[in-house]
Amino acid sequence: MYAALAPELGLGTRRHFVNIAPSKMALSSVVPIEERPNKDILVLFDVDGTLTPARQDATPETLQLLQDLRKKVVIGFVGGSDLPKQQEQLGAADVNVVDMFDYAFAENGLTAYHMSKQLASQSFINWLGEGKYKDLVNFILHYVADMDIPIKRGTFVEFRNGMINVSPIGRNASTQERNDFEKFDKETQVRAKFVEKLKERFADYGLTYSIGGQISFDVFPAGWDKTYCLQHVQDAGFKEIHFFGDKTYKGGNDYEIYEDDRTIGHTVESPADTAKILKELFKI
Ligand SMILES: [Mg+2]
């Protein structure tokens, strides 16, 4: 499939661009989608570990490569964090991250932009409703109150836009307290038991539970992984949707979209690996 596709990618109208630094790239210099040689190919990227080193900023080389790619195909990012985090990692003081990509999907697409314009957004509370949320959080707080664990701190439920984060010890725990809790949880499985109880009690809610990090677990609607963003592009008529991600293994946050029938998945080990595959695949 790539072999058949590759020759086309090198063709198309040659355009001349003033060679300016990507951070100064204004939206006005972007090739309109309809003028790109492969306008029916969408290339989506995970952010952390794929376009940037873990929790760090993208290099100028990566940013330049994205701008070169954007002359040929349609590009987008899909990250689990909120937009300010992606602005910090990919944008610059004078460049808005939503202007650097044709599609920008923060929080897996709950916050979404196309050509710098915001699309319909969604939130956990809006989806669940106040009444059902209250029943859920009341149950959680009762359960935490009745838990016999060595120590408790504060912030047992953290309310976020797309999910809630639940911690039996509380998110205010110090580093040492977190380490101790993690060890305790490995021995007693208190988080796993808590999740089982919630699954049983709120079976009709359509929720997914994800135990991650040292002290907590996330609760969010089923299907609100990275595949959520695909609904924003399903009517755009793309013939191919490529996805690049570093955590494409089962349990990783790129797994669902990587495995999805609507995408062609690429596993990468680093931003350098992403660049290498892009150069091969799209002749940039
Ligand atoms: Mg990643």
What can you see in these coordinates?
The protein is built from ten helices and eleven strands. By secondary structure, the protein is an alpha/beta fold. The protein folds into two domains: 2-8 and 35-110 and 225-282, Rossmann fold; 124-221, Eukaryotic phosphomannomutase, cap domain (Hypothetical Protein, Haloacid Dehalogenase-like Hydrolase, Chain: A, domain 2, 2-Layer Sandwich), CATH 3.30.1240.20. Strand 6 and strand 7 form a beta hairpin. It starts with a helix and ends with a helix. Residues 1-24 have low confidence and may be disordered. It binds magnesium ion. Magnesium ion is lined by residues 46, 48-50, 245-247. The site of magnesium ion has 7 residues, from loops. This is Phosphomannomutase. It is found in: Cytoplasm.
What is the topology?
Blueprint (H helix, E strand, L loop, with lengths): L1 H9 L30 E5 L14 H10 L4 E5 L4 H8 L6 H4 L2 E4 L4 E4 L2 E2 L5 H5 L1 H17 L10 E3 L4 E3 L8 H14 L1 H12 L5 E6 L3 E6 L18 E6 L9 H5 L4 E4 L3 H12 L2
Parallel strand pairs: 1-2, 1-10, 2-3, 10-11
Antiparallel strand pairs: 3-4, 4-5, 6-7, 7-9, 8-9
The protein binds magnesium ion (MG).
Magnesium ion binds next to loops.
